[in-house]
Design goal:
This protein is α/β, with parallel strands linked by helices and 725 residues long. Strands 4-3-5-2-6-7-1-8 form an eight-stranded mixed β-sheet, sandwiched between helices. Strands 9-16-13-10-12-11 form a six-stranded parallel β-sheet. A two-stranded antiparallel sheet has the order 14-15.
Length: 725
């Protein structure tokens, strides 16, 4: 047969609307149809031989093409195509069953205990610092039994302490620990927990769900949906932004429950200043500079201490104990530390005496519902959450102020704060272990990652819900796929809370799973050996980051110990060394400026070693490349490739931000204010600048445009054309 003729007829088969319709009737949506056809075409074109009946059909089609009396038609290929599709997509044979299992259109029906009672729903709506949570907690404390569900361990711990201080016995339940109020370990009638840990089977008089607007979170929103629909309590007190009122009301309409809304106003005034800070020389006691990357934290804190001022530092990957100590240091009126440098981790969970919030940048890296990384201006909700930390009610500052570091950002910040908060449109859902087990029964040979993919592709949700992002789950599923585990254990390992950008933590999860699969207990000695405990105080930033990763590994061990107690038996000992590690990290954070200096002096000439949190602001998903991590391995998006001063984040919007980073080449940077500022601050040397310029020119000659980003705007294209001519 002519290869060209066969290929032409296969493509004609693919384009026929009748064939696409037949595919859809047999469970092949557009995506599956395309994938099945690519595989089918590859099978025919690359196989040394095909089945006799398929060869006859192909021969008839090719020989009859263009003749009045056709010997065969491309539609005759469909039975062979469908047979091939069922081989690569086994679920096509049981599609009806799978569709029923993945039908997510009636989540309220998943919680029969909650549907069996008539619950009273009270929504406490208001901005930060309005007293909404206070009123809900007062009802929680006065009840015979209650549960508090919060987004952070810090918040759960705060309610736990507050309850027991008020002589209301309350247990603490997080993913990593359970602390009993009673000495005999008898469960107390009140529980403060992280929201993922709430029980939907235990009856309570009062339940409090905090930060309800996080029901739209692309990764964790399912936990708020589960609590809202499933908590078995006579009264449900919901706290959060007014933007979630309409969605909660609609969700409760589907359960036959009415929502009582109580609105609150901010207790202290918050003023947006008419001037930007512009220089760190203008800092005052009670100021908090908010950055959106760890790089900026390091840079700003060093510049502050270079001016003879002491500052506290808080960012997301710090252990909770270290965050509390830094907050205590900043709040202490007798401590010389009067300045705070923090990420948006201060937005919730910490009580801080802040007079003025200063946004170092209004551009923030985020992850959308599809799991894609984006760099965009902060939302109104985020800006209000952070700005609202200034002038906390009951603190020494009776009025809060907010501004920006740079004059250009102030206009946009005012616009952002003046806009109404976007209403919360949908609530998150996540497949349960039971649903995945039923899928596995029908598809016994599919991997867990494939099961999740198939589930999401077949799932049906109505307009009030969305399926949460499952990229982290799939990443872990693929990582441990080669390890022999039963499905339920594999599912638990894949839901472990870890940052997949931390190579050391991922490596330790792999070791945990491998040891677990051998049915060998993970003892305290085993853990110490693999984490090289005991560890010394950090001498540079790299070592501080590694200590934070080890702390995360201890968290991971404790998390798994509550799910597999016999295999992770030494939780008490691990908790003890984790507290010691917390103290070591606190020492490192208190000396963070010294660590930065040590890191830069130890770095090779022409390089600067600064570790980024999440991912650098100057790169998008398409700009990613592999760079060596601090353990010698290669890790995508793990570390920043350059030191960036705080002024580099100035942008009126995302388009202007990207344009600014793409249009200027290194020569113009060398002559411009950014390079001068970096030289002046000691973050760049003349030798480093010359080396960067040389590398830029080499890359330019080779057709590469430096720093991992594409220069795709018109002006740069014209400039490139001129140089080529």
């Amino acid at each position: 047969l002519s290869t060209g003729e066969v290929l032409k007829n296969l493509n004609k088969f693919y384009k026929r609307k009748e064939i696409q319709r037949l595919g859809a009737e047999n469970g092949l949506d557009a995506r599956l149809f395309h994938q099945a056809f690519i595989s089918f075409r590859k099978y025919i074109m690359e196989s040394s031989s095909v089945s006799a009946d398929l060869h006859i059909i192909l021969s008839d089609i090719c020989c009859g093409a263009g003749k009045v009396c056709l010997l065969g038609h491309v539609d005759d290929l469909f039975p062979f195509f469908l047979r091939h599709a069922k081989q690569i997509f086994p679920m096509l044979d049981c599609m009806d069953d799978l569709r029923k299992i993945s039908d997510l259109r009636l989540p309220p029906n998943w919680y029969p205990d909650a549907r069996a009672i008539q619950r009273k729903i009270i929504f406490h709506a208001g901005p930060t610092n309005s007293g909404k949570t206070y009123h809900a907690i007062q009802r929680f404390l006065s009840a015979k039994s209650g549960i508090y569900c919060g987004p952070l361990k810090l918040l759960a711990h705060e309610i736990f302490q507050k309850s027991n201080d008020a002589n209301v016995p309350c247990d603490l339940v997080t993913g990593e620990e359970r602390v009993y109020a009673n000495e005999d370990a008898r469960p107390a009638p009140h529980i403060a927990c992280t929201i993922e840990m709430c029980s939907t089977n235990t009856p309570y008089e009062v339940a409090v769900i905090d930060e309800i607007q996080m029901i739209r979170d692309p990764a964790r929103g399912w936990a708020w949906t589960r609590a809202l629909l499933g908590l078995c309590a006579e009264e449900i007190h919901i706290c959060g932004e007014a933007a979630a009122i309409d969605l909660v009301t609609e969700l409760m309409y589907t359960t036959g429950e009415e929502v009582e809304v109580r609105n609150y106003k901010r207790l202290t005034p918050l003023t947006v200043l008419d001037y930007a800070l512009e220089s760190l020389d203008n800092l005052r006691p009670g100021d908090c500079i908010v950055c959106f990357s760890k790089n900026d934290i390091y840079s700003v804190s060093r510049q502050i201490e270079a001016r003879g001022l002491e500052c506290a530092v808080i960012y997301g990957s710090l252990p909770p104990g270290t965050k509390l100590e830094q907050a205590k240091k900043f709040n202490d009126p007798d401590d010389p530390c009067k300045i705070l440098v923090a990420t948006d981790a201060i937005g919730m969970g910490l009580n801080l005496c802040i007079k003025r919030i200063i946004f170092n940048s209004i551009v923030k890296p985020t992850i959308n519902e599809k799991g894609e990384k984006e760099i965009d201006s902060i939302t109104t909700s985020q800006a209000l959450q952070i700005a609202g930390r200034a002038g906390r009610y009951g603190s020494s500052f009776k009025q809060g102020e907010v501004t920006t570091m740079h004059r250009d950002d102030l206009v946009q910040l005012k616009e952002i704060l003046s806009e109404p908060v976007r209403p919360v449109k949908a609530a998150g859902l996540h497949p349960t272990p039971e649903q995945i087990e039923m899928f596995a029964y029908h598809l016994p040979d599919a991997t867990l990652s494939n099961l999740i993919d198939i589930f999401v592709s077949l799932s049906q949700v109505d307009g009030l819900y969305f399926v949460c992002n499952i990229d982290d789950f799939k990443f872990l599923a693929d990582m441990i796929q080669h390890i022999p585990l039963n499905l339920r254990s594999r599912y638990v390992f894949c839901t472990a809370p870890l940052n997949r950008k931390e190579p050391f933590v991922c490596t330790m999860l792999l070791k945990f799973a491998r040891q677990f699969s051998r049915n060998e207990p993970l003892t305290f000695d085993w853990l110490c050996r693999h984490t090289k405990w005991p560890l010394a105080a950090p001498k540079n930033i790299k070592e501080l980051v590694h200590l934070e990763a080890v702390h995360d590994v201890f968290d991971l061990y404790l998390w798994l110990s509550y799910r597999f107690m016999d295999m992770f038996p030494d939780a008490v000992l691990v908790r003890d060394i984790q507290k010691k590690l917390d103290d070591i990290i606190q020492v490192g954070v208190c000396n963070i400026t010294k660590l930065i200096r040590a890191s830069q002096s130890a770095a090779a000439p022409g390089t600067a070693e600064v570790v980024s949190e999440d991912f650098p602001l100057s790169r998008t998903k398409r700009d990613t490349r592999l760079v060596p991590d601090h353990h010698g391995a290669k890790s995508a998006e793990a570390f920043s490739i350059a030191v960036e001063g705080p002024g580099e984040r100035r942008a009126k919007n995302l388009k202007a931000y990207r344009s600014a980073t793409r249009q200027e080449d290194l020569k113009s940077h060398g002559r411009g204010s950014l390079a001068n500022r970096l030289l002046r601050e000691g973050l760049l040397t003349q030798e480093m600048l010359r080396q960067l310029e040389s590398e830029w020119q080499d890359q330019h000659r080779n057709g590469r445009y430096g720093l991992g980003s594409k220069r795709n705007d018109q002006s740069s294209s014209k400039e490139t054309g001129k140089k080529k001519k």
